[in-house]
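Teaching assistant here, posting this on the class forum so everyone can see the example we discussed in section. The complex has two components, and the goal was to see what a joint structure prediction looks like when all of them are supplied at once.
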Amino acid sequence: MNQRRKEFHASNLVLILTVLFLLMPLFVIIVFSFNEGKGSTFTNFSLKWYKLLFSDSHALLDALSNSLFIAFTAGLASTVIATLAAIAVKWYSFKGKKYIQIITYLPMVLPDITLGISIVLFFAGLNVPLGLFTIFAAHTTFCIPFVYLTVLSRLDEFDYSIVEAARDLGATELQTLYKVILPMILPGILSGFIMAITLSLEDFIITFFVSGPGSTTLPIYMYSLIRFGVSPVINALSCFMIVSIALTAITLRHFVKDLAIS
Amino acid sequence: MKNLKLKKDLGSYYAYPMGIWFSLFFLLPMVLIFAYSFLSKGLYGGVELQLSLKAYRDIFQKAYLLILGRTVVISFEATLYTIIIAIPCALALARSKRQTLYLTLIIIPFLINSLLRIFAWMSILGSDGIINRTLIQLGIITDSLPLLYNRRAVILVMVYMYLPYAILPIFSAIDRFDFSLLEAARDLGATKMQSYIKVLFPSIKSGINTAIIFTFIPAFGAYTIPLFVGGKDSYLLGNLIVDQVTKTRNWPLASAFSMFLTLISTVLVMYVFVDDKKKNPKKKRKI
């Protein structure tokens, strides 16, 4: 018994160290966003980087609003498309089912860079101007598989006889969908939607290829900040994002395990 | 029966939006770059409609092969370290009483934009960074250590980035594992190590395989990590592909490299899935 307890400690230690390792850079960012100096020694507490961030915030706000717009629209589109497809794959047989099942996995396992290249060359070949639409299309594409899998795993727990009962009681196909299936799988749909929004907000590489002039998203904006002169303004911006994401994660912590397992 | 027939037709309505979307924005672009890789480079970017194998011949230039080999080695190393750290973490996580807390703490950094996390590492490792500053102030070193802009930094940041991807699938496999099996093995005379290797490991192997895929493939196609924390010794395939599109505007070569990347990823995924399928029926038969 004693021996066994010891081995628990060993893996616990690794876990705690790993969590610290994962959080350490975030901690560094937060601390140095309040540093008066530019270097990496902490001199004095100051809010000057925050003032700078918000006084010169036109580009930032543009990028933020683009990002939110794309995340919301692409999240919505991918959730609708993927939820319907998951229902179809779970319960119906139809032509091309195998095709749908296989092709949904592919974008998830391919490196982002391949997806980005193929879609940008596709748009360039068709002479589609790069901008918000191309970002929306690309984001919807890479979000769909994740929402699809989340909803599908929720449908696995769904008792199909409820659908049959609804139909026996005279519900039409659409009524069954709206009044029975969708409300019951809503938690799965919501976590898929949240996942799509985070994926979209976070994506840099694919957006880097398909964004055009005037369609800078937040990650692209940060890329240019880092690329052309590192400034502590990034720390202030990051701190802001870390706190808001941490708060969201803590509020939604009941979803966390669902998300983690799917 | 009539009902069933009706439902069959409706299934296609549910699924077709996705089918059409993916055909248009995923399959078609992939087919297109496949085609581009066999065409010749246009004068001002783009492609000319002339069949050519030049792009594929170019891949086998010594300079490119060197980058390719380096990418394989670096992503392999990063994957190895990540998995070695992730397994005990997932094990401790599955047994922990504060599971939700730990999961949230692991997922938070994963939700923060990757560029910000790379930036944080730059300010930790830089020549004027936190580590060097601290060591100099403590009088341990006089000149700053070259911690940034080399392959070690690339591997470190890769491990950092992909750890959550690796921990979560292994955790969800362990979470389904029945720990009383381990006790049974011990009762039947297995040593601690034996019970882990022969009982726990086979049943979480699919989780480990998923973790390997989720670590190796993004590492193999990494662009931002080598760009920001790497140096000359860690210019990887991802940087090469992006430069072919944005700088030299050589679409056929970029397409050929992307096809190569796709091929490697597909082979890896197929291998793991086939491996899983082969193992699972066997296990059932044994029982």
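For the discussion questions: Chain A touches chain B through 95 residues (CB under 8 Å). The mean pLDDT of chain A is 84. Think about how each of these relates to the inputs above.
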